[in-house]
Amino acid sequence: MIFHLGDTVTAIEGKTATLKSGGTLETDLVVVGIGVRPRLALAEGAGIKLDRGVAVNQFLESSVPGIFAAGDIARWPDPHSRENIRVEHWVVAERQGQPAARNMLGAREVFDAVPFFWSQHYDVPINYVGHAEAWDEIAIDGDVAGKDCLLRYKSKGRVLAVASIYRDLASLQAELAMEQGRE
Ligand SMILES: Cc1cc2nc3c(=O)[nH]c(=O)nc-3n(C[C@H](O)[C@H](O)[C@H](O)COP(=O)(O)OP(=O)(O)OC[C@H]3O[C@@H](n4cnc5c(N)ncnc54)[C@H](O)[C@@H]3O)c2cc1C
Known about the structure:
Helix content: 10-25%
Mean pLDDT: 95
Radius of gyration: 20 Å
Low-confidence stretches: none
Number of strands: 11
Oligomer: single chain
Shape: globular
Structural class: alpha+beta
CATH class of the largest domain: Alpha Beta
Order of helices and strands: EEEHEEEHEEEEEH
Number of domains: 3
Strand order of the largest sheet: 7-8-11-10-9
CATH topology of the largest domain: FAD/NAD(P)-binding domain
Number of helices: 3
CATH architecture of the largest domain: 3-Layer(bba) Sandwich
Bound molecules: flavin-adenine dinucleotide
């Protein structure tokens, strides 16, 4: 398999895909992954502050008091990466929905859970905990090709995220360490 990273397809005609870089690829099958975009018109119309999503504080409350956002649409101050992040994953949406609902009822519960997702690719389950948009080192423990590994994404020595294959216990331990501020 060859990855054409940093490139994109500009046209598909018949069985030929043309790349932005100028080359062409002959194809039998095309799988299109086009991503998603948050639907912000309602929030924008309500005068809520946007930041590539709906900007919320640590209580998942938007710039308009009493209006909360959770899940794919929310960009929140993540204490672990120390960035305002927006994450498109099930578990994050589920975990945010709960404190957002409680905070609507008056609780002042800080959302500080570490983002987590897993993804199954045939016989390769990938667990990912934390959030790293940029890193300066990936420390590899184990054997990636052998499907038994744990990768630590680090920035300035700090572990921002951990990806693993068949290392569930170590993945949970990494999540706990991040929650407790030990990573
Ligand atoms: C193809 C695909 C594969 C994915 N695979 C994974 C995976 O393997 N693992 C993982 O963790 N996550 C995965 N995700 C992401 C996961 O589905 C999302 O993170 C999760 O669904 C987010 O939940 P949510 O409630 O924030 O948003 P959504 O599930 O998008 O719910 C938002 C709802 O709001 C409704 N809505 C929007 N605008 C309005 C409006 N103006 N008025 C009323 N209703 C409105 C929408 O119709 C929708 O029902 C995948 C997503 C896609 C698209």
